Amino acid sequence: MNALNSALYLATILIWGSTWLAITYQLGEVDPLVSVIYRMALASGLLFIWCWLRDIPLRISTRDHRFMAAQGCFLFGLNYWTIYWSEVYLPSGLVAVIFSLLVFFNIINGRIFLNHPVTLSTVVGGLIGLTGICMLFYPEFALLSHSESNSNPNGALIGFGLAFVAVIFASLGNIVATRNGNTGISVWAINAWSIFYGTAILALIALVTGAEFSYGSTLEYSLSLIYLSVFGTILAFGAYLKLLINIGPSRAGYTSLIIPFVAIILSTLFEDYQWTLLAAGGFMLVALGNYIVLKRR
């Protein structure tokens, strides 16, 4: 890889690997749903300004608007809401590892919606990855379930369920994004509209559920919000999409192998994530499962 692609690769890994920890600074004082709305509204606004400054066309057909809304709903709306919610119950690094199942769900949904083939190595890699997730998840579930100070003994199970649902939402969003990316519309315009629709859908949910639109009083909340909007949503997506163009999806997909390593190292340093031998073995199996799938593809 040349210097530019190496820089894009490194930026994608470090930014997305660190966003899992940054999300934890958005939790506690503000409803997770509202925090996601703030993040996406800021990102969408900045993207529309960027398109305007660069004369990137924003006019699209009614049919394309519907698909942008679908992408926004799954990829930038429901996906991030359930991720934030899952981190209320689980360490950020553990959620990042669970989210690496996205590789397998993309293949399954690619088969269902895009008629992409599924190979034997994909099935084997998926089974290895799922086994690793179970090994990694069990110590955390046992720890939270037997903690006398834990007011919700089912918290680990709830967190896992939310993270698992987030993966499904993200995969469906990726399928729609594949369709949108093949229209010839600028990626910046696609993301601007998609994030806008995702924000609008979440705002509607917030109004229906009666969520309180408060704002975090700490400096960490504001700084993490800016970081997640500008770096985690705009720049990381831009870097990764550029990487897809330059080196292809197969090689770019290997970022999903390294991102959980970054996330769980940060979780160990800043959230005091407690390692066990079983968890370490599970983490390595997840990485191996991803490698087997990506190696073949």
From TrEMBL:
Example of a GO cellular component annotation carried by this entry: membrane
Keyword field: Membrane, Transmembrane, Transmembrane helix
All residue ranges annotated as the EamA domain in the record: 8-137, 158-294
Residue spans crossing the bilayer: 7-27, 33-53, 65-83, 89-108, 120-138, 158-176, 188-209, 221-240, 252-270, 276-294
InterPro entries attached to this UniProt entry: AA-Vitamin_Transporters (IPR050638), EamA_dom (IPR000620), EmrE-like (IPR037185)
Keyword Transport: no
Short name of any one Pfam family annotated for the protein: EamA
Annotated localization: Membrane
Membrane topology qualifier: Multi-pass membrane protein
Family: Belongs to the EamA transporter family.
Name by which UniProt lists this protein: Membrane protein
Organism: gamma proteobacterium HTCC2207
